[in-house]
Structures are given as C-alpha cells and as structure tokens.
Predict the structure.
Amino acid sequence: MNYFLFLNHPKGEEIYKISLEKEKLIRRYFDSINTLECEILIKGKKYDAVIDYQIFGKLCNFDCFNCVDDCCADSPSLLQENTKKFLKNNFEEFNKITKNCDIGEELGYSKEELKNELEKEDERNIISEIEEETEMCFYAYRNEDRKTLCSIHSMCLNKTMSQEEIWQYKPLVCSLWPMEIFIEEGSSKIYITLPDDFTNSFTIENYYEIPCINIEISESAIFRKKNPNGFDEKKYVPFIEAYKTTISSIFGEKIYELIKHKLGL
Ligand code: SF4
Ligand code: SF4
C-alpha cells in the first residue's frame, strides 16, 4: 500500500511507501467501520474507492488567513507539466511574490539555472537549498500579515481563475489536504479518510497539531497565544461542507452528494 497523494513526492518511496505495520492498522480500521464504495474519477483516471464517509462529518474550520501555523513547510509534490508551464510564463510575478529568483541569485545561482531546474525537476538542488534557507515550500510565501500562502494559488487568483481552474494547477495533494488516500499497489483500489484521533497513527498528518481539523486545539491557551484571532468555534462546519467545492470539482458532484446523503445531511 502507498500514500496515493504522495506518489509524486520529490523524495519518492521514502515518503509514499506505507510500512507493513501501518498497512495492517489501515486494513483493520477499514474492516471495522461503515464505508461507502463507489467509482471515482480523479484527473481522468478511474479508481474503486472505499470511503470512510462518517469522518466527512467531522467539524473543520479552514481559517487560513487567521492562522500562523507553519503550513506548507516543504514541497509535497513534483509539479505537473501545465503548472511548470504556468510558472515559466509568469516567472516575473512568481519571483515578485516568492523572491525565489532573488534568493537563488544570493545563493550563487543564475535565473536561467533556477528556471532550468524548475522545468526539468529531475534534480532539485537549488529548489531544496532555497527551501532549507526559507524553511518553507518553494512555492509558499508570507504575506504582509506573516500568513503563509501558496504562490501558485495566489497567481491563479490574480488571473481571476475559478476554483475549478485553480485545481488544475495546484498539486493534487495540496488541493485535497488534509484528506488522506491510500492505494493498493498495482491496483486501482483506494481508501479515503481524514486524520483524526482514531486514525492518525497511520495518516501522514498529525491530527493533534492541526487547528483547522481539531476544534479543541483551537480553544487551547497555547494555540490562542500564537493565533489570537480567527478559528471561531461557531464557524466549524462538517468537512463535507467545508470542502464542498473541492470535493465536487475533483471527485465530481455525485460523490459529494453520495457522502452527504450517507451522512444524512
Ligand atoms: S493549518 Fe489549517 S488553517 Fe492553518 S494554514 Fe494550514 S490549512 Fe490553513
Ligand atoms: S499549497 Fe502551494 S505552497 Fe503549500 S505546499 Fe502546496 S504547493 Fe507548496
């Protein structure tokens, strides 16, 4: 079994391969819960999905503009060809937002060297060095309020693209985060869930540290000291509603409706 959303991770197998111990836990978990089984089309490819639908009723509040957590700490995916082309065609804007080209030059690399590496991505020496120096994903940046944002997303918004269009450019793992998908090796069978206090021993993300999917964290004094605003308790809604557009655009509206129906919402 592999972590489906991390199959394109720059570090490869080291990240996407699931240990046998975790695989056992995943199988045991999915055998013990009620699931929704259906066919899902993701980026034009059909998968047989087993969905942990009850977890889509979990309360969430993706209050990113009021969050100072270190999201987007490193690149979770190599880029698709259309995204590389998009960055190449908007390289000046990309540099203006992220300062990556300027940082590259400070580190001794020319703009052309960085552009070449970005285009091929067979080696990620400059990109990795910039990520290490800045302690964030190569495509991330901080706005004037010190919030970490995604330059790919921001550039799409600057071009007034719709959410559906944005999903064509952002890495799939970033669009679906924090959803977790496991895939059987050499098969089209996938298992879909979310990190939570029962499953986080086998999901990549740690539920206990993420305020947007853990309402209790957002109420803690430690969290409040770092994040004085936002994360209003009343604004937590079921994940299926918070991710309505994402789920409808990426998995199709039928899947959104099916999960919602199973949840009785
Ligand atoms: S931790 Fe959650 S709320 Fe904070 S920036 Fe990341 S996705 Fe947004
Ligand atoms: S959302 Fe953007 S900035 Fe964040 S990890 Fe993904 S590509 Fe990087």
Summary: Residues 20-32 form the longest helix (13 residues). Strands lie at 2-3, 36-42, 45-51, 59-60, 140-142, 148-150, 180-183, 189-193, 237-238.
